[in-house]
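User: I'm putting together a small comparison set for a docking exercise, and I want a reference complex before I start. The sequence is below, and the ligand is flavin mononucleotide. Could you produce the 3D structure with the ligand included, as structure tokens?
Assistant: Of course. I'll restate your input first, then give the structure tokens for the complex.
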Amino acid sequence: MSSFQIIVGSMLGGTEYVAEACEEQLILLEHQVNLHLKPDFTSILNDTFAQNTTKKSVWLICTSTHGAGDFPDNIQAFVSDLKNCEQDLSSINFMIIAIGDSSYDTFCKAGKELNILLKTKGYSELSGIRTLDMSEDIDPEELAQQWLNQIKDRL
Ligand SMILES: Cc1cc2nc3c(=O)[nH]c(=O)nc-3n(C[C@H](O)[C@H](O)[C@H](O)COP(=O)(O)O)c2cc1C
């Protein structure tokens, strides 16, 4: 059993539904889950290290992309704090669900940028980024749950 922090970047709310579906699935898989709809870097770190240290710590970041490849407003401060953080966070594992629309050249750019940033910072990638294309994927919540199920042995 791992301890998950689900970190959500969303402007219009769609990504929140995906994150909630992930929360539901992870609880079914018997993990411990905290959902952060208004991500605050310090509280997420506190929640991460407050858990029993024998549990694997995982950050699942679910973020859409807005503007011209920008992060949603609600996750911008988190990303900036992450960039500025000098603490060794290599014990934290991460995985990303990036939500976007493939009609944009900057398809899922926010999630892809975060993926690179976390790797650069020394976090361990549990699974390659999962992109969801809102112009094609009819049931993103179901797809996100299926993905978690497919990689459940790594969680
Ligand atoms: C103004 C606007 C700009 C967008 N820009 C991008 C973009 O650059 N890249 C991308 O992949 N998707 C882009 N999208 C698509 C959104 O990421 C997609 O609609 C997503 O489902 C929104 O998630 P949310 O409801 O959680 O905010 C944009 C959508 C809007 C409305």
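The mean pLDDT is 95. The CA atoms of residues 59 and 94 lie 5 Å apart.
User: Thanks, that's exactly what I needed.
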